[in-house]
Amino acid sequence: MIKVGPLITTPKAIMTKDFTLIINKSPYTLPTDFQKYSRSGKLRVLYRRFIRLRPFISRRAMIRGSYTNYIRHKFHENYELKRDIVLKSSGGKRMHDLSDIEMGCRTLTFVQKAVSHVDGEGEDGIHGALAHDNLICKRILKNLLTIEFHRERLEFRNAVAYRYLRLTFEYLDPTYRNLKYASLRHADTSIIHLNELLGTRL
Amino acid sequence: MRKVRPHIGGLVPVAITRCMTKNAPKRVPCVPSVETPLFTNFQKWAGKKKMLYFSRDDISRSKPLMLPNFNLNGNMFAQMLQKPIRLDTLSRVKVPRAFLVQLKVHKLAVNNENKKLIELAPAIISGSHSSSSYVPLSRQALATMSLSQLLPSSVKYSKMRHFDVSEVAMDRDKLTTGYEEKLVNLVTDGLKELVGIFGDEADVGLENWDILVTYDERNSYDMELRQFEDLAGKPVIIIFNLRFLRSEELDRLINVELKTHEYGIILKIPKNENLIKFMYNLIAFKTC
């Protein structure tokens, strides 16, 4: 592969053949005095960071819309209920006791990784491994947004489906009768298991 | 009559009156220091995909680590979730390929006994050599879905050749029990292969996110997440319990021949990826 260096470099960004690489990351990362904020302040800071990352997720408005809806649902949903239903059939124990703010911070790191470019892509060593890890994050986030789009489609103007998919999470129970949700259940169960292992809240 | 010049001293600034005089100092023209948006905000209209940039210095300097390595390469769930997206024909929902069963169409011999032209069968290792459809990883779904739902759309809507439903050979038992048997055989063969390899690595310890394969009658969970708090580093382990298969051979393999740990066999994700995938498929297929 022929490596093309930066085409244009400005104080704010580096333009390469494929990407615009933003140099100043401070608007997208947590402030240094984050721990001093109140709970509502912390939530607001996190929500702002997630929404600021919108232009990095995609250039297509539809995917950006899916991402926004996804973030909004994540700030509203009853994650503890969802988690308990899934873990009931896989051991029944929680793997960590992080607060929702800490889980949110880790999720923000996950999304940042998904939209980051690291020097040393395709090389061996620390930087190559980190770049590959970021690539997996990016693929997972992309897949999550696709699943989210289809979930929105299922619940659209369907109050019953909305209740199952967003409020009571009955579809996550393996004994749930409707086979229509089987593949969605497998995917969502895996997402929650991944969250248990990483401490995120995807 | 003498002309009276109007007194303009109070109205025109001094600088302008000087310019108007003959002896005004000559000024060298220079480029005004205006910051053009061409360079200050070029990233806004460059038209390329935006990403945050982390140089090598950024990564080594930042404390605490701004961009940690999650080590997702060794995580089973991350590996499944990053697989390419495929359409589930039952619910029309798109999910990663790891949560679906791939069905493939095979051409049959011309003069077969049932006079069928093509056959529909599940594919264990996914490939792209012929037209395929994807259905949920669920025994019940495969047993109840209609043939038209199971057929790949490229066969259903082909303009070159119309296939009637009576021309397609499909055995329900082959779809459900056959798929399961294939997986069980692959798991057994995979474990048998490990018998020779594991002899040298018997002292391998449990690390975070390892997969522990057990055959435990007392444990009621097929797949379990468990944290081993008495071990160093308190690793979180994914436990597969294959007791639901009721196979004496697997019982002997797991509990006697291959037992590397006091609990069972340790598998690692990039190394034993296929074997782990078959086991997950079996558990998901059976329980759903």
TrEMBL record, chain A:
One of its GO terms (biological process) is mitotic recombination. It comes from the Eukaryota. This is Increased recombination centers protein 19. It comes from Eremothecium cymbalariae (strain CBS 270.75 / DBVPG 7215 / KCTC 17166 / NRRL Y-17582).
UniProtKB/TrEMBL annotation, chain B:
It comes from Eremothecium cymbalariae (strain CBS 270.75 / DBVPG 7215 / KCTC 17166 / NRRL Y-17582). It holds the Pfam family RRG8. Coiled coil: none annotated. GO terms for cellular component: mitochondrion. Belongs to the RRG8 family. Required for respiratory activity and maintenance and expression of the mitochondrial genome. It comes from the Eukaryota. Keywords: Mitochondrion. InterPro entries: Rrg8 (IPR031415). It is found in: Mitochondrion. This is Required for respiratory growth protein 8, mitochondrial. The keyword rRNA processing does not apply.
